[in-house]
Design goal:
The complex is a heterodimer of chains A (247) and B (326). Chain A is built from six helices and 15 strands. With 247 residues, chain A is of the alpha/beta class. In chain A, a hairpin with a 4-residue loop joins β3 (19-20) and β4 (25-26). The longest helix of chain B has 19 residues, at 307-325. With 326 residues, chain B is of the alpha/beta class. Chain B is elongated and about 60 Å long. In chain B, the strands form four sheets. A seven-stranded parallel beta sheet of chain B has the order 7-11-6-1-4-5-12, sandwiched between helices. The chains are: A alpha/beta (247), B alpha/beta (326).
């Protein structure tokens, strides 16, 4: 069985966000890019664990992006993925990205497609379900546990107001959340091996994006924090009622 | 414009997030001169009434016992309703089921999706321009939806719910799911709801505590404060990782992202990953014994001091205020 893990290239969580070109583009100057944490810690690491348990023969990472994302893709290989695919296109629209991944998965016969629960840059939580929709596959979201035996997977995942344990036969698409696996640090052998592992670049196919970003605005931070003495809780309650109007 | 709103019932009530979507659609219909049709499964008369009061002008009432069990069925039902109503805009809540179904529908209809909208769309020619949060709340972006059919999923708690007179007509709507077969077999469902407490994603008041509480045995004072406010309890990541509190209470980037009206953070330093999950809160109160805690920079009100001394005083002050109000 073969697993395809979709990874996104995102600014590190602690990045100070800035925009350029009249607030129409993210300013990547001096920014450290990483694999989207949910894609890496939860989806990719669990896929690698399944391979290490001799249940999967191959783990491929796929990314839709331009050449500057290759360092991030190589990190996926350093963690243990067997090969990587980069679809050479900018990917700001979830439908566009989802269709690229779906087309590749269809042509190359993957049994399980894994994504993180959302990206930390566009926070859309959409690509996994789009891939599932295009390929007419089941989609299981917010998975916190995944075990595979033969052709059948057992998954624990979050639902509204609770959790659910489900069985599903391969193939299907899954989005991974906290609980699936623990973060790994690539070792030197992995980093060396990653240099020679195959990273195939292919051209985008399929439809044009359905949405586009017109502009960005930085969120206004909170201006000042009003400090209140610990001996004056009546004042805090009063402010929450009369000033903030939240109680 | 014909607008279709996918609505859901959870634990006997129309979801608050669904009512917000109906309000939202109703405002868009007002601006663009359209109609609001709601799709609902297995609703009773009271629930249909509430959907009407929230802004639907027509309700497609489905009676189907398998529909809600898998997103593939929901997606197909919405697709059939879109065709029947010739809907050009479809609204979902950006909650767990909306996140699974709206993108699937986007793929099926080749309809552009903005996932997690925080404001009303602006019409620009044939396109809709919609604002949503990006970079985990550090910024917003204006997306243009350029396809003929459009989908917006609305971030919960973006607008307060308003109920008005019910003007909706109810139509029985039959969906044909015979061509689809779900491959997901549900083995076990566990509820994480706590009796008498509003679930975290719907809560308007949240009291949250971190490692500053020193141990799970000290949560009584947090629960007392929450109870006095009728608030929901939450916690930081280390507290969930240490199993002091259940996993579903964990708010932050890797846990649940929330945006209540009031977020009280006790003994939480305010790491950037925590802020990413709570910075949409309207008002933030931070209680911490370290005056240098980074969370104070993201707070509206701050108290420096010992939580063990402050919480009982705050709870008493809330009780006094509530007694006075009644």
């Amino acid at each position: 069985m073969k697993i395809l893990v979709a990874i996104s290239n995102v600014p590190d969580t602690t990045t100070k966000i800035q925009f350029t070109d009249g607030d129409t583009k993210f300013n990547s100057a001096g920014v450290t890019f990483v694999i989207n944490p949910y894609d890496e810690w939860y989806a990719l690491v669990r896929a690698l664990e399944i391979k290490e348990a001799n249940i999967a023969e191959k783990v491929t990472v796929i990314h839709v992006g331009l050449i500057d994302s290759e360092a991030t893709i190589r990190k996926g290989l350093a963690l243990g993925a067997d090969d990587a695919v980069r679809i050479n296109a900018e990917g700001p629209d979830a439908f566009f990205v989802g269709e690229q991944i779906a087309n590749y998965a269809r042509e190359n016969g993957y049994d399980l497609i894994m994504v993180g629960k959302e990206t930390i840059n566009y926070n859309g939580s959409s690509v996994g379900a789009i891939v599932a929709g295009i390929l007419d596959l089941p989609f299981i979201s917010l998975a916190t546990k995944l075990d595979i035996a033969g052709n059948k997977a057992t998954i624990e995942h979050d639902i509204d107001g609770g959790t659910q344990i489900v069985d599903c036969e391969l193939p299907f698409v899954l989005s991974a959340a906290k609980g699936m696996a623990e973060q790994r640090i690539p070792n030197m052998r992995g980093i060396m091996a990653a240099r020679t592992k195959p990273l195939t670049v292919i051209a985008a196919t399929g439809s044009a994006p359905l949405t586009s970003i017109k502009s960005f605005t930085l969120s206004a931070g909170r201006t000042t924090c009003k400090m209140i003495s610990e001996d004056n809780m009546d004042e805090l309650v009063n402010l929450l009622h009369t000033e903030a109007k939240v109680i | 414009m014909s607008i279709l709103v996918y609505t859901e019932i959870n634990k006997g009530r129309v979801k608050k997030a669904s009512l917000e979507c109906l309000n939202y659609a109703s405002k868009i219909a007002e601006l663009t001169g359209g109609t609001v049709t709601a799709l609902i499964n297995n609703a009773d008369a009271i629930q249909l009434e509430e959907i009407g009061k929230a802004g639907a002008t027509k309700i497609l009432s489905v009676k189907n016992d398998i529909l809600s069990s898998d997103g593939v069925y929901i997606c197909s039902a919405v697709e059939q309703a879109v065709k029947a109503e010739n809907a050009k805009l479809i609204i979902f809540a950006f909650d767990i089921s909306g996140k699974a179904v709206a993108p699937r529908l986007s793929a099926k209809l080749k309809a552009g999706l903005v996932a997690g909208a925080v404001d009303y769309p602006v019409v620009n020619g044939n396109n809709l321009e919609v604002k949503k949060n990006v970079f985990s709340g550090k910024a917003t972006a204006i997306y243009s939806i350029n396809s003929d059919v459009k989908i917006i999923s609305l971030l919960p708690n973006s607008f307060p719910v308003k109920l008005e007179d019910n003007k909706a007509s109810v139509v029985d709507f039959t969906v044909d799911l015979s061509a689809i077969k779900s491959r997901i077999i549900i083995k076990e469902t566990k509820s994480t709801d706590v009796a008498g407490m509003i679930p975290l994603p719907e809560a308007e008041l949240v009291v949250s505590a971190g490692r500053g509480l020193k141990g799970p045995e000290n949560w009584g004072i947090v629960e007392d404060l929450a109870k006095s406010l009728n608030a929901t309890t939450a916690c930081s990541r280390p507290v969930a990782d240490l199993h002091w509190r259940p996993h579903h209470e964990h708010v932050g980037q890797t846990g649940v992202a929330i945006r209540p009206n009031l977020y009280i953070a006790i003994g939480i330093s305010g790491a950037i990953q925590h802020l990413a999950g709570v910075n949409g809160s309207k008002t933030i109160v931070v209680i911490n014994n370290d005056k240098e805690a980074p969370f104070f920079k993201s707070a509206d009100y701050g108290i420096v001091g010992d939580a063990f001394a402050i919480l009982p005083k705050l709870t008493e002050a809330v009780k006094k205020f509530k007694a006075h109000q009644n």
